[in-house]
Amino acid sequence: VGARLTAVLAAGLTMAVLNTATAGADPGGGGHFRPGAAGIGDPYYPTYGNGGYDVADYDLAIRYDPATDALDGHAVIRARATQNLSRFNLDLVGLTVDSVTVDGRRAHWSRSSHELVVTPRRKLHASRPFTVDVRYHGVPTTFTIAGTDLEAGWMHTDDGAVVAGQPEVATAWFPVNDHPLDKASYRIAITVPAGLAAISNGVHLGTTTRDGWSTWRWRQSTPMISYLATATIGRFRISETTHHGKPMIIAMDPDLPPDFADDAVSRTGEVTDFLATKFGPYPFEANGAIVDDYDNLHFALENQTRPIYSRHFFAAGVNPWETYVVAHELAHQWFGDSVAVHHWRDVWLNEGFATYAEWLWGERLGDGTPQQTFDYLYAQPLDAGFWNPPPGDPGVDQLFGSSVYTRGGLTLHALRMTVGDAAFWRIVRAWAATQRGGNGSTAEFIALAERISGRQLDAFFDAWLYQEGKPAYPGGAPPAA
Ligand code: ARG
Ligand code: ZN
Fold first, then answer.
1. Where in the numbering of this chain does the Peptidase M1 membrane alanine aminopeptidase domain appear (predicted)?
2. Which mutation among 166, 333, 346 tests ligand 1's pocket best, with the greatest number of atoms within 8 A of CB?
3. Complex-level ipTM
4. Residue 466 · residue 446 · CB < 8 Å
């Protein structure tokens, strides 16, 4: 297990380094027309998302000039009212709104720090579809990753922009119902100076160039959470191939040496196939990767079908350990993207599964078993950094703390030890299959695990997810060191 321990330590160290550089929904119907809520009801983020409607599709056309940082945007949002609506909110930060129409008629609108409040000329009836058209412009905002000082959002680079963040990034570049509970399909057209590329999610419909500007058109059909959308712009070496008939699009910053990240991200198909043997079929219509050389990007993100990787995960020369982050972001395609959190407090389900995928991939690389990884980590003292606070309700400041990742992964392996391999893998595959394309809460995961294993697991999950300190070793005493 020696090599494996080194790998775990190296991975932990990488994460540590990267880390330190770190109202409820409205009932529908009724005769009354009321404003939609200004938040979707997430206790961690009261202003995220909105009440009263559900978006089906975003059709975004943006133009960005890296020389001036100026963005011009046009968003056509097709939604359905979930209550009788007198007005509704979209989330938007910064940027200047130029016009808003609803179903083709000019609407009244106002802004506050995080919200675009739209009052349509005609009231919107519950369960009817409606279309919002917003034109806007400005210099897009940067954010930080929750609980860290890691730069995120619309990150202005030397040759364009890297667009990535969690939980907030979308509000920097389009008006949006910005929460995992409202997934939608996307069409994204990005116009940039000719010679630059603009990479987004899903399938590349084509690129046309006119008058010195190129428009890159993308289509993400399988519903996507807003934070997973990207519009990453710059000079890129782009490899467009297929994998099992699906587009595989890998965009590599040409300022990185040719042997830098290619060895790891070019294994995206292989790693995806490996994870599919564990989790079930890959849930999306395309796949790929984006690596930008932007020095201030210190994280990777599971952007749907197109994870974005910091250059800092890679180094010149072939290094199999660099594929751990690839396994991590690809695991999120199942857990995080396809099966999304219900509220952000459920984030351990994303990061625990992605961490566990690293341990599974490590086993494949011959770097020790998940059981060995578990035992090594279990032996670590309480001040090791990942035990507390427990991961089940980490709070905004610890949303991406070590516990959510490491103790989250330990929780899954402890479940495996408790219910046995057969039940564990049935739980994992059932979770991916039954919640596919939707959301899942911790309570729903526990209920599924109990149903499939036939066991009462409340005390188990309470100890692993909600209690301070080190939970009892599953099934008895840990093996002697
Ligand atoms: N979901 C991202 C991930 O792949 C979170 C990025 C934040 N990273 C961090 N080190 N805080 O883990
Ligand atoms: Zn992750």
1. 299-464
2. 166
3. 0.94
4. no
